[in-house]
Amino acid sequence: MKKILLTFLILTVFSCQEKKKEISSEISIIKEKEIKKKNEVVISVNDTINSFFTNLFVDEMQDNPDMLYLGKKENRTSVTIPIQNTVKIIGGDPFISFFYELQLDKGDSLLIAIKKIDVNQSKQIDYPIFTLLNSNRRWSETNFDYILYSYNLKSKAIVIDENKFQNNKYDSEKIYKNSIKLLDSLKSNNSISDKFYSTNRINQKLKFATSRIREAKNQNLELEIESLGVKLNEDKLLNNKEYVSFLRALMLYKYFNEDKRVKNSVLFDFVNEHETFLNKSAKDVLLDSYLKSIFFVEKPKFDKYLTKFNSANENDELKNKWNSVVANQKANSKKLNATNRTAGLLTNLVNDNELTFEQVLSGHKGKIVLVDFWASWCSPCRKEMPFLKDLKSKFNETELKIIEISIDKDYSAWVRASKLENLSKEEGNYIISNWEKSNLYKNFRIKTIPRYLLFDRNGKIIDDDAPRPSENELEELIKASI
Protein backbone atom coordinates (compact mmCIF):
# COMPACT_ATOMS: atom_id res chain seq x y z
CA MET A 1 0.00 0.00 0.00
CA LYS A 2 2.87 2.35 0.91
CA LYS A 3 4.54 1.55 -2.42
CA ILE A 4 1.30 2.34 -4.29
CA LEU A 5 0.87 5.63 -2.41
CA LEU A 6 4.51 6.61 -3.02
CA THR A 7 4.16 5.81 -6.71
CA PHE A 8 1.00 7.94 -6.86
CA LEU A 9 2.78 10.90 -5.21
CA ILE A 10 5.74 10.62 -7.60
CA LEU A 11 3.42 10.47 -10.59
CA THR A 12 1.44 13.43 -9.25
CA VAL A 13 4.58 15.54 -8.72
CA PHE A 14 5.93 14.55 -12.13
CA SER A 15 2.58 15.38 -13.72
CA CYS A 16 2.50 18.77 -11.96
CA GLN A 17 6.03 19.50 -13.13
CA GLU A 18 5.08 18.63 -16.70
CA LYS A 19 2.04 20.92 -16.46
CA LYS A 20 4.21 23.71 -15.07
CA LYS A 21 6.59 23.23 -17.99
CA GLU A 22 3.65 23.37 -20.42
CA ILE A 23 2.24 26.51 -18.75
CA SER A 24 5.69 28.09 -18.63
CA SER A 25 6.17 27.26 -22.30
CA GLU A 26 2.76 28.76 -23.16
CA ILE A 27 3.59 31.95 -21.21
CA SER A 28 6.92 32.31 -23.00
CA ILE A 29 5.16 31.88 -26.36
CA ILE A 30 2.61 34.54 -25.41
CA LYS A 31 5.36 36.90 -24.26
CA GLU A 32 7.25 36.31 -27.49
CA LYS A 33 4.12 37.17 -29.46
CA GLU A 34 3.68 40.34 -27.40
CA ILE A 35 7.27 41.39 -28.02
CA LYS A 36 7.11 40.77 -31.79
CA LYS A 37 4.66 43.54 -32.61
CA LYS A 38 4.13 44.53 -36.21
CA ASN A 39 5.61 47.81 -37.43
CA GLU A 40 2.17 49.25 -37.94
CA VAL A 41 -0.82 50.81 -36.23
CA VAL A 42 -4.40 50.02 -37.23
CA ILE A 43 -7.03 52.74 -36.72
CA SER A 44 -10.70 51.88 -37.28
CA VAL A 45 -13.97 53.66 -36.64
CA ASN A 46 -17.23 52.24 -35.40
CA ASP A 47 -19.43 51.30 -38.39
CA THR A 48 -22.10 53.78 -37.21
CA ILE A 49 -19.78 56.76 -37.77
CA ASN A 50 -20.61 58.69 -40.91
CA SER A 51 -17.48 60.84 -40.97
CA PHE A 52 -14.52 61.36 -38.63
CA PHE A 53 -11.42 63.50 -39.09
CA THR A 54 -8.21 63.65 -37.07
CA ASN A 55 -4.67 64.96 -37.43
CA LEU A 56 -1.98 62.32 -37.64
CA PHE A 57 1.68 62.75 -36.69
CA VAL A 58 4.06 59.93 -37.62
CA ASP A 59 7.23 62.02 -37.40
CA GLU A 60 7.91 64.84 -34.92
CA MET A 61 9.62 66.79 -37.71
CA GLN A 62 6.52 66.91 -39.92
CA ASP A 63 5.80 70.41 -41.19
CA ASN A 64 2.10 69.57 -41.28
CA PRO A 65 0.07 66.69 -39.88
CA ASP A 66 -1.35 64.04 -42.18
CA MET A 67 -5.11 64.29 -42.52
CA LEU A 68 -6.99 61.14 -41.70
CA TYR A 69 -10.62 60.81 -42.81
CA LEU A 70 -12.62 57.75 -41.79
CA GLY A 71 -16.29 56.75 -41.82
CA LYS A 72 -19.05 55.58 -44.14
CA LYS A 73 -19.20 58.94 -45.93
CA GLU A 74 -15.45 58.80 -46.55
CA ASN A 75 -15.69 55.27 -48.03
CA ARG A 76 -13.07 54.07 -45.53
CA THR A 77 -13.58 52.71 -42.03
CA SER A 78 -10.08 51.42 -41.32
CA VAL A 79 -6.49 52.33 -42.14
CA THR A 80 -3.17 50.59 -41.49
CA ILE A 81 -0.26 52.95 -40.85
CA PRO A 82 3.32 51.65 -41.26
CA ILE A 83 5.55 53.03 -38.47
CA GLN A 84 8.84 52.36 -36.69
CA ASN A 85 8.08 53.89 -33.30
CA THR A 86 4.90 55.81 -32.44
CA VAL A 87 1.95 57.59 -34.01
CA LYS A 88 0.09 60.49 -32.45
CA ILE A 89 -3.44 61.63 -33.24
CA ILE A 90 -4.53 65.14 -32.24
CA GLY A 91 -7.85 66.91 -32.68
CA GLY A 92 -10.44 69.20 -31.15
CA ASP A 93 -11.90 72.67 -31.46
CA PRO A 94 -10.16 75.65 -29.80
CA PHE A 95 -13.35 77.71 -29.92
CA ILE A 96 -14.96 75.44 -27.34
CA SER A 97 -11.78 74.45 -25.45
CA PHE A 98 -12.10 70.86 -26.70
CA PHE A 99 -8.84 68.98 -27.31
CA TYR A 100 -7.72 65.38 -27.42
CA GLU A 101 -4.38 63.69 -27.96
CA LEU A 102 -3.47 60.02 -28.02
CA GLN A 103 -0.14 58.33 -28.66
CA LEU A 104 -0.16 54.89 -30.26
CA ASP A 105 2.71 52.42 -30.17
CA LYS A 106 3.59 50.03 -32.97
CA GLY A 107 1.33 46.99 -32.95
CA ASP A 108 -1.61 48.94 -31.47
CA SER A 109 -5.10 48.52 -32.88
CA LEU A 110 -7.43 51.42 -32.11
CA LEU A 111 -11.22 51.46 -32.44
CA ILE A 112 -12.92 54.87 -32.38
CA ALA A 113 -16.53 55.47 -31.41
CA ILE A 114 -18.33 58.81 -30.99
CA LYS A 115 -20.01 60.19 -27.87
CA LYS A 116 -22.41 63.13 -28.19
CA ILE A 117 -21.71 65.86 -25.61
CA ASP A 118 -23.95 68.86 -24.93
CA VAL A 119 -21.60 71.83 -24.56
CA ASN A 120 -24.57 74.14 -23.98
CA GLN A 121 -28.34 74.09 -24.56
CA SER A 122 -28.06 74.57 -28.33
CA LYS A 123 -24.81 72.88 -29.33
CA GLN A 124 -23.56 69.30 -29.38
CA ILE A 125 -20.14 67.96 -30.30
CA ASP A 126 -18.88 64.53 -31.32
CA TYR A 127 -16.17 63.48 -28.88
CA PRO A 128 -14.06 60.46 -29.94
CA ILE A 129 -14.04 57.50 -27.54
CA PHE A 130 -10.97 55.29 -27.84
CA THR A 131 -10.70 51.54 -27.30
CA LEU A 132 -7.30 49.87 -27.67
CA LEU A 133 -8.08 46.31 -28.71
CA ASN A 134 -4.68 44.76 -27.98
CA SER A 135 -3.10 46.85 -25.25
CA ASN A 136 -2.79 46.77 -21.47
CA ARG A 137 -3.57 50.47 -21.24
CA ARG A 138 -6.77 51.10 -19.33
CA TRP A 139 -9.87 52.73 -20.78
CA SER A 140 -9.69 55.67 -18.35
CA GLU A 141 -6.14 56.41 -19.49
CA THR A 142 -6.90 56.48 -23.23
CA ASN A 143 -10.06 58.54 -22.60
CA PHE A 144 -8.83 60.83 -19.82
CA ASP A 145 -9.26 63.94 -22.01
CA TYR A 146 -12.92 63.03 -22.61
CA ILE A 147 -13.63 62.35 -18.92
CA LEU A 148 -12.00 65.61 -17.81
CA TYR A 149 -13.74 67.69 -20.49
CA SER A 150 -17.14 66.30 -19.47
CA TYR A 151 -16.34 67.02 -15.80
CA ASN A 152 -15.26 70.59 -16.63
CA LEU A 153 -18.51 71.26 -18.50
CA LYS A 154 -20.61 69.80 -15.71
CA SER A 155 -18.80 71.79 -13.00
CA LYS A 156 -18.91 75.02 -15.07
CA ALA A 157 -15.11 75.22 -15.23
CA ILE A 158 -15.74 75.59 -18.97
CA VAL A 159 -18.84 77.52 -20.03
CA ILE A 160 -19.60 77.74 -23.77
CA ASP A 161 -21.65 80.80 -24.67
CA GLU A 162 -24.84 80.17 -26.62
CA ASN A 163 -24.15 82.93 -29.16
CA LYS A 164 -20.52 84.05 -29.30
CA PHE A 165 -17.35 82.00 -28.94
CA GLN A 166 -15.56 85.11 -27.63
CA ASN A 167 -17.72 85.00 -24.49
CA ASN A 168 -16.71 81.48 -23.46
CA LYS A 169 -15.52 81.22 -19.85
CA TYR A 170 -12.45 79.19 -19.08
CA ASP A 171 -11.46 78.89 -15.40
CA SER A 172 -7.89 77.53 -15.48
CA GLU A 173 -7.67 77.15 -11.69
CA LYS A 174 -10.92 75.20 -11.49
CA ILE A 175 -9.86 73.03 -14.44
CA TYR A 176 -6.60 72.26 -12.66
CA LYS A 177 -8.40 71.36 -9.41
CA ASN A 178 -10.86 69.21 -11.37
CA SER A 179 -7.99 67.34 -13.03
CA ILE A 180 -6.39 66.54 -9.66
CA LYS A 181 -9.73 65.43 -8.16
CA LEU A 182 -10.35 63.23 -11.17
CA LEU A 183 -6.88 61.68 -11.09
CA ASP A 184 -7.20 60.98 -7.35
CA SER A 185 -10.62 59.39 -7.87
CA LEU A 186 -9.47 57.20 -10.78
CA LYS A 187 -6.38 56.16 -8.83
CA SER A 188 -8.44 55.13 -5.77
CA ASN A 189 -10.67 53.01 -8.02
CA ASN A 190 -7.61 51.40 -9.65
CA SER A 191 -8.80 52.75 -13.02
CA ILE A 192 -5.39 54.17 -13.94
CA SER A 193 -1.82 53.01 -13.39
CA ASP A 194 0.60 54.58 -10.90
CA LYS A 195 2.74 55.86 -13.77
CA PHE A 196 -0.20 57.52 -15.52
CA TYR A 197 -1.29 59.09 -12.25
CA SER A 198 2.10 60.58 -11.36
CA THR A 199 2.88 61.75 -14.91
CA ASN A 200 -0.46 63.47 -15.36
CA ARG A 201 -0.44 65.14 -11.94
CA ILE A 202 2.82 66.80 -12.95
CA ASN A 203 1.53 67.68 -16.42
CA GLN A 204 -1.68 69.23 -15.09
CA LYS A 205 0.34 71.31 -12.63
CA LEU A 206 2.63 72.48 -15.44
CA LYS A 207 -0.32 73.36 -17.69
CA PHE A 208 -1.89 75.42 -14.90
CA ALA A 209 1.40 77.20 -14.15
CA THR A 210 1.86 77.98 -17.86
CA SER A 211 -1.68 79.36 -18.14
CA ARG A 212 -1.07 81.62 -15.11
CA ILE A 213 2.13 82.98 -16.66
CA ARG A 214 0.40 83.70 -19.98
CA GLU A 215 -2.52 85.35 -18.21
CA ALA A 216 -0.13 87.56 -16.21
CA LYS A 217 1.72 88.58 -19.39
CA ASN A 218 -1.44 89.29 -21.39
CA GLN A 219 -3.00 91.37 -18.59
CA ASN A 220 0.23 93.00 -17.35
CA LEU A 221 -0.15 91.45 -13.91
CA GLU A 222 2.54 90.93 -11.30
CA LEU A 223 3.27 87.27 -10.68
CA GLU A 224 5.44 85.66 -8.03
CA ILE A 225 7.21 82.85 -9.85
CA GLU A 226 7.71 80.97 -6.58
CA SER A 227 3.92 80.80 -6.12
CA LEU A 228 3.69 78.51 -9.17
CA GLY A 229 5.32 75.66 -7.25
CA VAL A 230 7.49 74.60 -10.21
CA LYS A 231 11.29 74.43 -10.07
CA LEU A 232 13.03 76.50 -12.76
CA ASN A 233 15.81 74.01 -13.48
CA GLU A 234 14.42 70.54 -12.92
CA ASP A 235 16.60 68.08 -14.83
CA LYS A 236 14.05 65.28 -14.44
CA LEU A 237 11.50 67.29 -16.42
CA LEU A 238 13.67 68.47 -19.30
CA ASN A 239 12.24 65.78 -21.63
CA ASN A 240 8.69 66.81 -20.74
CA LYS A 241 7.07 68.97 -23.45
CA GLU A 242 4.77 70.62 -20.86
CA TYR A 243 7.82 71.69 -18.86
CA VAL A 244 9.46 73.15 -21.98
CA SER A 245 6.22 75.08 -22.70
CA PHE A 246 6.35 76.37 -19.12
CA LEU A 247 9.95 77.58 -19.57
CA ARG A 248 9.11 79.25 -22.89
CA ALA A 249 6.15 81.09 -21.34
CA LEU A 250 8.30 82.16 -18.40
CA MET A 251 11.02 83.47 -20.72
CA LEU A 252 8.49 85.70 -22.49
CA TYR A 253 7.03 86.94 -19.20
CA LYS A 254 10.36 87.79 -17.55
CA TYR A 255 12.26 89.29 -20.48
CA PHE A 256 9.73 90.26 -23.17
CA ASN A 257 6.75 91.39 -21.13
CA GLU A 258 6.15 94.49 -23.25
CA ASP A 259 6.21 92.63 -26.59
CA LYS A 260 3.10 91.06 -28.06
CA ARG A 261 4.87 88.85 -30.60
CA VAL A 262 8.48 87.74 -30.50
CA LYS A 263 10.13 85.68 -33.23
CA ASN A 264 11.72 82.39 -32.23
CA SER A 265 15.02 83.52 -33.74
CA VAL A 266 14.99 86.55 -31.40
CA LEU A 267 14.28 84.32 -28.41
CA PHE A 268 17.03 81.93 -29.48
CA ASP A 269 19.58 84.77 -29.64
CA PHE A 270 18.52 86.17 -26.29
CA VAL A 271 18.83 82.84 -24.47
CA ASN A 272 22.07 82.07 -26.26
CA GLU A 273 23.73 85.41 -25.53
CA HIS A 274 22.44 86.40 -22.08
CA GLU A 275 22.54 85.10 -18.54
CA THR A 276 19.03 84.03 -17.51
CA PHE A 277 17.42 81.87 -14.84
CA LEU A 278 18.33 78.78 -16.88
CA ASN A 279 21.14 76.39 -16.03
CA LYS A 280 23.18 74.85 -18.88
CA SER A 281 20.98 71.76 -19.33
CA ALA A 282 17.76 73.77 -19.40
CA LYS A 283 19.36 76.30 -21.76
CA ASP A 284 20.28 73.55 -24.26
CA VAL A 285 16.75 72.15 -24.19
CA LEU A 286 15.17 75.58 -24.66
CA LEU A 287 17.51 76.42 -27.55
CA ASP A 288 16.54 73.08 -29.10
CA SER A 289 12.86 74.02 -28.76
CA TYR A 290 13.41 77.42 -30.42
CA LEU A 291 15.43 75.79 -33.20
CA LYS A 292 12.56 73.42 -33.91
CA SER A 293 10.18 76.38 -34.19
CA ILE A 294 12.63 78.13 -36.52
CA PHE A 295 12.75 74.96 -38.64
CA PHE A 296 8.98 75.14 -39.13
CA VAL A 297 8.22 78.89 -39.07
CA GLU A 298 11.42 80.69 -40.12
CA LYS A 299 12.93 78.08 -42.43
CA PRO A 300 15.25 80.44 -44.40
CA LYS A 301 17.08 81.13 -41.11
CA PHE A 302 17.40 77.48 -40.09
CA ASP A 303 20.94 76.78 -41.36
CA LYS A 304 22.29 79.89 -39.65
CA TYR A 305 20.69 78.98 -36.32
CA LEU A 306 21.69 75.35 -36.56
CA THR A 307 25.31 76.52 -36.70
CA LYS A 308 24.72 78.67 -33.62
CA PHE A 309 23.05 75.77 -31.86
CA ASN A 310 25.91 73.37 -32.56
CA SER A 311 28.39 75.93 -31.21
CA ALA A 312 26.45 76.55 -27.99
CA ASN A 313 24.99 73.12 -27.28
CA GLU A 314 26.80 70.51 -25.18
CA ASN A 315 24.06 67.87 -25.33
CA ASP A 316 25.21 65.15 -27.76
CA GLU A 317 21.75 63.60 -27.95
CA LEU A 318 20.23 66.87 -29.20
CA LYS A 319 23.14 67.45 -31.58
CA ASN A 320 22.77 63.95 -33.06
CA LYS A 321 19.04 64.50 -33.51
CA TRP A 322 19.63 67.61 -35.63
CA ASN A 323 22.42 65.93 -37.59
CA SER A 324 19.90 63.22 -38.49
CA VAL A 325 17.27 65.80 -39.49
CA VAL A 326 19.74 67.60 -41.76
CA ALA A 327 20.96 64.33 -43.30
CA ASN A 328 17.38 63.33 -44.12
CA GLN A 329 16.70 66.75 -45.61
CA LYS A 330 19.74 66.51 -47.88
CA ALA A 331 18.80 63.00 -48.99
CA ASN A 332 15.24 64.12 -49.81
CA SER A 333 16.45 67.20 -51.68
CA LYS A 334 18.91 65.10 -53.68
CA LYS A 335 16.13 62.74 -54.77
CA LEU A 336 13.98 65.60 -55.96
CA ASN A 337 16.80 67.41 -57.72
CA ALA A 338 18.89 64.56 -59.13
CA THR A 339 18.53 66.08 -62.59
CA ASN A 340 17.06 69.19 -64.13
CA ARG A 341 13.38 68.34 -64.16
CA THR A 342 11.98 71.54 -65.61
CA ALA A 343 10.38 69.47 -68.37
CA GLY A 344 8.38 67.62 -65.71
CA LEU A 345 10.16 64.31 -65.15
CA LEU A 346 8.36 61.88 -62.87
CA THR A 347 9.83 59.46 -60.31
CA ASN A 348 8.15 56.68 -58.34
CA LEU A 349 9.13 54.65 -55.28
CA VAL A 350 9.18 51.29 -57.04
CA ASN A 351 12.08 51.68 -59.47
CA ASP A 352 13.11 55.37 -59.20
CA ASN A 353 13.05 55.75 -62.98
CA GLU A 354 12.85 59.25 -64.43
CA LEU A 355 10.20 59.58 -67.12
CA THR A 356 8.40 62.40 -68.89
CA PHE A 357 4.62 62.52 -68.62
CA GLU A 358 4.38 61.71 -72.32
CA GLN A 359 6.46 58.54 -71.79
CA VAL A 360 4.25 57.45 -68.89
CA LEU A 361 1.09 58.10 -70.90
CA SER A 362 2.32 56.29 -74.03
CA GLY A 363 3.23 53.29 -71.89
CA HIS A 364 -0.48 52.70 -71.28
CA LYS A 365 -1.86 52.92 -74.81
CA GLY A 366 -4.95 50.83 -75.28
CA LYS A 367 -6.28 51.79 -71.81
CA ILE A 368 -8.33 54.64 -70.48
CA VAL A 369 -5.98 56.69 -68.28
CA LEU A 370 -7.09 58.77 -65.29
CA VAL A 371 -4.45 61.16 -63.92
CA ASP A 372 -4.82 62.43 -60.34
CA PHE A 373 -2.84 65.51 -59.25
CA TRP A 374 -2.54 65.59 -55.46
CA ALA A 375 -0.27 66.42 -52.50
CA SER A 376 0.20 65.14 -48.96
CA TRP A 377 -1.03 68.45 -47.52
CA CYS A 378 -4.16 68.64 -49.69
CA SER A 379 -7.19 67.71 -47.59
CA PRO A 380 -9.69 67.32 -50.50
CA CYS A 381 -7.12 65.17 -52.35
CA ARG A 382 -6.73 62.81 -49.43
CA LYS A 383 -10.50 62.52 -48.97
CA GLU A 384 -10.80 61.28 -52.57
CA MET A 385 -8.22 58.48 -52.17
CA PRO A 386 -10.62 55.76 -50.90
CA PHE A 387 -13.05 56.55 -53.73
CA LEU A 388 -10.18 56.37 -56.22
CA LYS A 389 -9.26 52.93 -54.86
CA ASP A 390 -12.90 51.82 -55.13
CA LEU A 391 -13.06 53.09 -58.71
CA LYS A 392 -9.94 51.10 -59.60
CA SER A 393 -11.53 47.88 -58.29
CA LYS A 394 -14.49 48.27 -60.67
CA PHE A 395 -12.36 47.98 -63.82
CA ASN A 396 -9.74 45.45 -64.87
CA GLU A 397 -6.14 46.44 -65.63
CA THR A 398 -6.63 46.25 -69.40
CA GLU A 399 -9.43 48.84 -69.24
CA LEU A 400 -8.31 51.54 -66.82
CA LYS A 401 -4.96 52.85 -65.54
CA ILE A 402 -4.83 55.35 -62.70
CA ILE A 403 -1.74 57.54 -62.45
CA GLU A 404 -1.02 59.55 -59.30
CA ILE A 405 1.18 62.63 -59.59
CA SER A 406 2.16 64.39 -56.38
CA ILE A 407 3.23 68.03 -56.47
CA ASP A 408 4.79 67.82 -52.98
CA LYS A 409 7.98 69.83 -52.45
CA ASP A 410 8.87 67.71 -49.43
CA TYR A 411 9.94 64.26 -50.59
CA SER A 412 9.59 62.66 -47.15
CA ALA A 413 6.02 63.98 -46.81
CA TRP A 414 5.14 62.34 -50.14
CA VAL A 415 6.73 59.04 -49.05
CA ARG A 416 4.83 59.13 -45.75
CA ALA A 417 1.52 59.93 -47.44
CA SER A 418 2.12 57.28 -50.12
CA LYS A 419 2.57 54.63 -47.44
CA LEU A 420 -0.54 55.79 -45.60
CA GLU A 421 -2.61 55.67 -48.79
CA ASN A 422 -1.12 52.26 -49.82
CA LEU A 423 0.47 53.79 -52.92
CA SER A 424 4.16 53.21 -52.16
CA LYS A 425 4.26 49.93 -54.12
CA GLU A 426 2.27 51.26 -57.07
CA GLU A 427 4.29 51.98 -60.22
CA GLY A 428 1.71 54.58 -61.18
CA ASN A 429 2.45 56.71 -58.09
CA TYR A 430 4.83 59.55 -59.08
CA ILE A 431 6.26 62.77 -57.69
CA ILE A 432 7.28 65.76 -59.82
CA SER A 433 9.60 68.61 -58.87
CA ASN A 434 9.72 72.16 -60.23
CA TRP A 435 5.99 71.72 -60.64
CA GLU A 436 5.04 75.28 -61.54
CA LYS A 437 7.81 75.47 -64.16
CA SER A 438 6.92 72.13 -65.76
CA ASN A 439 5.30 71.73 -69.17
CA LEU A 440 2.60 69.59 -67.57
CA TYR A 441 1.54 72.50 -65.34
CA LYS A 442 1.53 74.97 -68.23
CA ASN A 443 -0.13 72.73 -70.84
CA PHE A 444 -3.17 71.89 -68.69
CA ARG A 445 -3.28 75.12 -66.64
CA ILE A 446 -3.46 73.28 -63.35
CA LYS A 447 -3.89 75.99 -60.72
CA THR A 448 -5.62 73.98 -57.99
CA ILE A 449 -5.73 70.38 -56.76
CA PRO A 450 -7.22 67.84 -56.68
CA ARG A 451 -7.46 67.87 -60.46
CA TYR A 452 -8.25 64.91 -62.69
CA LEU A 453 -7.41 64.41 -66.36
CA LEU A 454 -9.04 61.62 -68.38
CA PHE A 455 -7.36 60.27 -71.55
CA ASP A 456 -8.73 57.84 -74.15
CA ARG A 457 -7.08 54.62 -75.36
CA ASN A 458 -4.92 56.59 -77.82
CA GLY A 459 -3.67 59.10 -75.27
CA LYS A 460 -5.97 61.92 -76.37
CA ILE A 461 -7.66 64.05 -73.73
CA ILE A 462 -11.32 63.26 -73.01
CA ASP A 463 -11.78 65.67 -70.10
CA ASP A 464 -9.12 68.02 -68.72
CA ASP A 465 -11.19 68.68 -65.58
CA ALA A 466 -12.90 65.36 -64.96
CA PRO A 467 -15.36 64.78 -62.07
CA ARG A 468 -13.94 63.65 -58.74
CA PRO A 469 -13.87 59.90 -57.93
CA SER A 470 -16.52 60.45 -55.22
CA GLU A 471 -18.92 61.60 -57.95
CA ASN A 472 -20.84 58.93 -59.92
CA GLU A 473 -20.33 60.93 -63.13
CA LEU A 474 -16.67 59.88 -63.35
CA GLU A 475 -17.46 56.16 -63.38
CA GLU A 476 -20.12 56.71 -66.06
CA LEU A 477 -17.66 58.77 -68.14
CA ILE A 478 -15.06 55.99 -67.99
CA LYS A 479 -17.60 53.32 -68.94
CA ALA A 480 -18.74 55.40 -71.90
CA SER A 481 -15.11 55.77 -73.06
CA ILE A 482 -14.10 52.10 -72.91
From TrEMBL:
Keyword Chaperone (UniProt): no
Cellular location(s): Cell envelope
GO terms, biological process: cytochrome complex assembly
UniProt keyword terms in alphabetical order: Coiled coil, Cytochrome c-type biogenesis, Disulfide bond, Redox-active center
GO cellular component, as recorded: cell envelope
Coiled coil (residue ranges): 199-226
InterPro entries noted in UniProt: Thioredoxin-like_fold, Thioredoxin-like_sf, Thioredoxin_domain, Thioredoxin_ResA/DsbE_sf
Residue ranges annotated for the Thioredoxin domain, each copy included: 325-482
Pfam family, one: Thioredoxin_8
PANTHER family: THIOL:DISULFIDE INTERCHANGE PROTEIN DSBE (PTHR42852)
Protein name: Thioredoxin-like
Provenance organism: Zhouia amylolytica
Lineage: Bacteria, Pseudomonadati, Bacteroidota, Flavobacteriia, Flavobacteriales
